[in-house]
Amino acid sequence: MNVISILKQAQLASRKLVTVSDETINSILKDAAGELLLRQDVVLEANQKDLDRMDPANPKYDRLKLTPERLEGIAGDMRNVASLPCPLGKVLDQTTHPNGMIIKKVSAPFGLIGVIYEARPNVTFDVFSLCLKSGNGCILKGGSDADYSNRALISIIHSVLEKYQIDPSVCTLLPPDREATAQLLNAVGIVDLIIPRGSSNLINFVRDNARVPVIETGAGICHTYFDKEGDKEKGQAIVNNAKTRRVSVCNSLDCLLIHKDRLSDLAYVCNNLPDSQVTIYADPEAYAALAGNYPAALLKPATPESFGTEFLDYIMSIKTINSIEEALSHIAAYSSKHSECIITESKEAALLFEQVVDAACVYVNVSTAFTDGAQFGLGAEIGISTQKLHARGPMALAELTSYKYIIEGNGQIRNS
To answer: Which of 57, 125, 135, 371 has a CA 20 to 30 Å removed from the CA of 112?
Structure first.
């Protein structure tokens, strides 16, 4: 398969998207959402083929799995995107030159966006809806683990695009092989941007090998700091939710930091975790506080590798901290700059945490599970950016646009 030819066809098709009305785009998204639910039996059958090839104990299994409820959620996200204002053509800034010409800074699509992702078939529809609404073509490079699912989903998308006489190449699924990945990463002049969604290994590989500009998303090493003035009721609820709601997602809790003065409350804070069979790797002080108060089979001594690890599983580490300054230093050393939380009733501690922590999302007395484009009112997301250039945090419609300057005049010329 000639991947470059496929990419060039997608580039050509994507250039025409800016001429499609927002009303038509919205109708396509709503129809695609409806068609997804009408054909959910086909999608679930394809998804089961993928699931049959994966060990259920694999943390990716939950990400891979589609259910009627999850398909309803995907369809709902598409309808939400359709209901949002068009992000294109917005005048971001405007000035009038002394000679009378008008200089406008206007939002515009990137062009063609490549998204590389692993066992996450829901990403297929998220990327399609957000890219279409923002006037971008999209190249989807899913992993082999989800190939049956992705092909079933792309078939639905293409059938709806053809109904509206739009070239299906605006949403292209590449083969799940390494050769296709290599050609996508090197498609300079064809692909405008690449967004990897997945493990830190995937993100590092894309960043290190791409010649096309990259926005890094996804890797989450998330901490929650239980301050000396933290409320233990809030702490118990937040820690349990952040760790166990969905362990396979990037906003799940990996490391609990606890102030030494609150070790007597640690068993209470962790009280609900055994219900989900959460294994804890605790430093000596935390281990001593939990011994006899936490199931012995689920309590293990921490090692250096216990910190700075994105577990994506029912595993959590605990580190005892002597001060908020030490907590801030630990987070600075081990964070992936995704989502960080403090549990405290101290306004001073909360403000210091907000000011000093360098992360896309900083929480005070709130579970990190809320780092999500839909939860932030963005309709859906294409990923959580952990970098600082162009976009940071949940990337939705506004973050999938660039801008250009439009200068209007009446014959002005420059003389010097």
So the answer is: 371
pTM: 0.84
Residue 407 burial (10 A CB sphere; 0-12, 13-18, 19+): exposed
pLDDT digits (tens, 9 = 90+) for 36-50: 999 999 999 999 999
Q: How far is CA 200 from CA 60, 216, 233, in A?
A: 14, 10, 33
Name the β-bridge partners of 321.
Answer: 259
Sign of CA dihedral 42, 46, 52, 55: negative
Task: Report how far residue 180's alpha carbon sits from residue 97's, in angstroms, rounded to the nearest whole number.
Answer: 48
Provide φ and ψ at 258, rounded to 5°.
Answer: -130, 135
- According to DSSP, residue 165 is labeled T
Query: Is residue 163 predicted with pLDDT exceeding 80?
Result: yes
| Strand ordering across the sheet containing 315-321 | 299-301, 279-282, 315-321, 253-259, 222-226, 339-343, 361-364
**Spatial separation of the C-alpha atoms in residues 118 and 219, rounded to whole Å:** 13
**List of residues 6+ apart from 9 with CB closer than 8 A:** 167, 169, 172
Exposed e or buried b per residue across 150-173, where buried means at least 16 C-beta atoms within 10 angstroms of its C-beta: bebbbbbbbebbeeeebbbbbbbb
